[in-house]
Amino acid sequence: MPDHAHLAMVPIYLPQGPIPIAEIMQAIKGASAHRINKLLNRRGKVWQEESFDRALRKEEQFEEKLYYMLGNPVRAGLVSNPLDYPWIWRKTSPAVVGATS
User: Fold this and answer.
1) Spatial separation of the C-alpha atoms in residues 20 and 18, rounded to whole Å
2) Contact, 11 vs 19, CB < 8 A?
3) Which residues contact 18 (CB under 8 A, 6 or more apart)?
4) H helices, E strands: number in the chain
5) Lower CB density within 10 Å: C or N end of the chain?
6) Is 99 strand, coil or helix?
7) Which residue has the higher pLDDT, 24 or 12?
8) What are residue 13's phi and psi, to 5 degrees?
9) What's the DSSP call for residue 20?
10) Buried-exposed string 33-61: b where 16+ CB fall within 10 A, e elsewhere
């Protein structure tokens, strides 16, 4: 999406526990902001301070959110098939494959 991003993930569990979502988001935002600014030959903030994360605990919630994320570029009128949106990266899985039918 031109003005926001969605991410579905399962944090890695280390012996000392899961990597905190805040730490993961800081790494993603820092690296991507650096690259975006370099590509656009500019400096400054790219992302908002806050991320609107949601912890999902049931498989049904995951599938509901996944379909919502896949439908975002369709609702925005950018593509008619969500998998045609060039910025969707996906690991082939039954939930994602089922979204195309």
Assistant:
1) 6
2) yes
3) 11, 12
4) 3, 2
5) C
6) coil
7) 24
8) -100, 120
9) P
10) eeeeeeeeeeeeeebeeeeeeeeeeeeee
Q: What is the dihedral of CA 74, 80, 86, 88, to 10 degrees?
A: 50
Per residue in 55-76, pLDDT tens? 777 777 888 888 898 999 999 9
Hunting for tokens 């991320």 — which residue is that? Answer: 51
pLDDT at position 87 over 50: yes
What are the tokens at 32?
């991507």
Q: Quick one: residue 62, left, alpha or beta (phi over 0 = left, psi -120 to 50 = alpha)?
A: alpha
Helix, strand or coil, per DSSP, at residue 35: helix
Give residue for tokens 């039954």. 94
Cβ atoms of residues 21 and 13 within 8 Å = no
Contacts of 32 (CB under 8 A, 6+ apart): 46, 47
For residue 52, the number of C-alpha atoms closer than 13 Å in the C-beta half-sphere is: 4
